[in-house]
Automatic annotation (TrEMBL):
Superkingdom: Eukaryota
Domain AP-5 complex subunit zeta-1 ARM repeats, chain residue ranges per copy: 206-323
Location of the AP-5 complex subunit zeta-1 C-terminal TPR domain: 335-686
Ranges for domain AP-5 complex subunit zeta-1 N-terminal TPR: 5-165
Record-level GO cellular component terms: AP-5 adaptor complex
Protein name: AP-5 complex subunit zeta-1
């Protein structure tokens, strides 16, 4: 019935159900009926419509919940007679409930108290705890969090809450305050019970689940009433020290860290040791635990802003955090998209850039680390450094590769640059490139790279932009050997390179040495064509005094000569030698860049015009027609003709390709650049006579 209401979103009916339940709980139920079947329905009611209950009704339920939590029987329930012929009417008197370690319980009943059978109030106790968090979140925040100065002080309140549960002062508290008090005591008892050695694995698992829930509820109570913070902080500090060394309690460390993140300042507690253990040990040891990885990353996502404001450990630990993504991608990609901006600043950008490019390599290294840990101790001995390792496992134990593995598997940020040492390790780990886990990780890198550059663009200064451009050129041929991965990364890096150049055109002059070296290497056209093409485009676009007054004719000539030599090499047709199949786009961009440079240093116009005039011979040669399709040849020839026609009017070419300082960044010039092919076609039509035209 309630599911039907949920689908129909009939809140009035939901409210009516809630009110009937409260009325039933408030009164005495008829013989044979039980309240415990009503609490799950009430839990659904407040999930669907929290406003279904009035304040008076929530007070009634809060009072009941406080009693159920604290005053459940400590004797086991009586087994219900089967009613058979051989049933014995003399049932044995029930004994006391026990703890998970078999000891007789000496304190009040909780969900961790064990028995063969349970009484009605014990069932209500367990169900109350199961819905306690939801109830507090829905209705616990409606009262004042701290007492008035004219009433009791916070210290007095803390003392009052320690007093025996049967005290008059406790019963005189408002219902929600009393519920918080009993809930806090209940959570303390659960945490104490979690220290017992469970006899059964299922009970041990229940201990851990209850511990997590108890700490979470204590955090909620402290948010609603700060007088509990001091007791909770000292209590949880002791708990943290007790479970830190036990990996099976790793999930419980998250709500503890959340508590100190929320209340550490008020409790005057130095929480850095808690955060340091959380971010240092857990990802490094338990990155392969998928459920923990998801919870850990969600915790980081939800608290990214708080961490960046309160602790440097979060940003410092990003190499460790990325182990979760490297091993558990793509399920965690959405969460890392949210986290990455908070990890980035001027100090971490370069290292994170390298880490993103090496993410598949990190996955492979983690795989090797896990396999190595399962080897017998006799096989873990260090290998002879004089013998080159033939496999990844051997390299992991080889002293020559140890520093590279340690850097790749580091737990925190480091200032030292290890990229050169990673080159041989990258090659060795190439044997794992076909691993499904590695390939899945590789698929996440392009998305994160695009996000990386969009975030860095918001705060990067001139120095950082220049560093990134140089690194794009260097790392473009230092990638993990997965062909599809390399193609995707080259595509992203090429587009982001243009973005960096648009942000700071002056880098073309400042990085002329690096750009000349990259654009002058013919092999880059085939190995990384997208990056090469965009570098050449940026040179042609921004090597101009309009963008940087330091640009000289000598620099323009130097770039022209370099690109001219590359284009000559690309279009050179040698007898009896097959023509390499270079991308037509690279050839057209080279021609356009040379034309732009010639328009800014007009002594070069005759040279580029002569070169362009030879392109018809190039595209019509048999060696070229056997390699390029007709459409590609037409594209090359058309662009050469258009550029050559434009250079016949040097003043027009200079205006189109070399705007004055006043219009270089205007909307008009942007539109000219965006529609350059159209402009070239218009000039071509103006210069070429129409068919059938006879000059008079």
């Amino acid at each position: 019935y309630l599911c039907f209401i949920c689908k129909g979103e009939e809140k009035a009916e939901v409210s009516a159900v809630g009110q009937r339940i409260v009325k039933a709980l408030e009164g005495r139920l008829p013989e044979g009926q039980s309240s415990r079947y009503l609490l799950p329905v009430l839990s659904n009611v407040i999930s669907l419509s929290p406003e279904a209950l009035t304040e008076e009704q929530t007070n009634v339920v809060s009072k009941k919940m406080a009693d159920w939590l604290r005053y459940a029987s400590t004797q086991q329930g009586v087994a219900q007679p089967s009613g058979g012929f051989f049933s014995n009417p003399r049932t044995r008197q029930p004994g006391p409930v026990t703890e998970v370690d078999g000891a007789i319980a000496t304190d009040f009943f909780t969900v961790l108290s064990l028995g063969q059978h349970y009484t009605e109030d014990q069932w209500l106790n367990m169900q109350t705890f199961s819905m306690l968090r939801k109830w507090l979140l829905c209705y616990g925040g409606k009262e004042t969090n701290t007492p008035n100065s004219g009433d009791k002080s916070q210290t007095d309140r803390s003392i009052v809450s320690v007093v025996s549960t049967s005290s008059t002062s406790s019963r005189l508290l408002p219902p929600m305050e009393r519920l918080r008090e009993k809930a806090f005591e209940y959570c303390q008892r659960l945490i104490e019970q979690s220290n017992r050695q469970a006899l059964k694995k299922a009970d041990g698992d229940l201990q851990k689940a209850c511990l997590i829930e108890a700490v979470t509820i204590m955090d909620i109570i402290c948010k609603q009433d700060s007088s509990y913070v001091y007791r909770a902080a000292s209590f949880l500090k002791i708990l943290h020290g007790r479970i830190t060394g036990d990996a099976t309690y790793a999930r419980a460390l998250l709500p503890i860290a959340q508590f100190f993140l929320n209340h550490g300042e008020m409790a005057a507690v130095d929480s850095d040791a808690i955060y340091k253990h959380l971010f240092t040990d857990i990802p490094a040891q338990l990155f392969h635990n998928s459920s923990l990885a998801f919870e850990f990353v969600l915790f980081c996502r939800d608290n990214s802003q708080l961490f960046t404001e309160t602790s440097s450990i979060f940003r410092h630990s990003f190499p460790n955090l990325f182990k979760f993504l490297a091993w558990n991608s793509p399920p965690l990609i959405a969460e890392f998209v949210d986290i990455l901006p908070f990890l980035l600043d001027a100090g971490t950008a370069i290292e994170i850039f390298h880490l993103l490019l090496d993410l598949p390599c990190l996955t492979a290294a983690l795989d090797v680390q896990m396999r190595s840990s399962t080897l017998p101790s006799s096989e873990r001995a260090a290998c002879d450094p004089a013998v080159k390792p033939a496999a990844c496992l051997e390299a992991f134990r080889n002293p020559l590769y140890r520093s590279a593995f340690q850097y790749l598997l580091r737990v925190g940020s480091v200032s030292e640059d290890f990229q050169e040492r990673l080159i041989p390790l990258r090659q060795l780990l190439g044997s794992l490139a076909s691993s499904p886990r590695v390939m899945q990780c590789a698929d996440t890198v392009p998305v994160l790279l695009e996000l990386f550059f969009s975030v860095v663009a918001e705060f990067a200064d001139a120095s950082l932009i220049n560093q990134l451009v140089v690194l794009v050129l260097q790392r473009s041929d230092q990638l993990y050997e997965i062909p599809a991965f390399k193609d995707d990364v080259h595509r992203v890096l090429s587009s982001q390179l243009v973005m960096l150049c648009k942000l700071r055109p002056a880098l073309i002059v400042e990085l002329s040495k690096e750009l000349l070296e990259f654009s002058g290497t013919v092999s880059n056209i085939q190995n990384k064509e997208p990056i090469f093409t965009h570098v050449v485009w940026a040179i042609g676009e921004y090597m101009s005094v309009s963008y940087d007054k330091r640009c000289t004719v000598e620099q323009i000539n130097r770039f022209f000569e370099t690109l001219e030599a590359v284009l000559f090499e690309v279009t050179q047709v040698r007898p009896q030698i097959s023509v390499p199949n270079y991308a037509p786009r690279a050839i057209t961009v080279l021609m356009t860049a040379l034309t732009k440079l010639a328009a800014r240093s007009q002594d070069l116009i005759p040279r580029v015009s002569l070169f362009l005039s030879k392109m018809r011979t190039f595209v019509q040669s048999p060696a070229v027609t056997s390699v390029y399709c007709e459409e590609d040849r037409e594209e090359i020839l058309t662009r050469a003709t258009e550029l050559m026609n434009l250079l016949k009017m040097p003043s027009v070419a200079q205006f189109v390709f070399t705007p004055s300082v006043d219009v270089a960044r205007t909307r008009f010039q942007k539109e000219v650049n965006d529609t350059l092919p159209s402009a070239l076609r218009i000039v071509t039509r103006l210069l070429e006579p129409a068919p059938g035209f006879v000059p008079g």
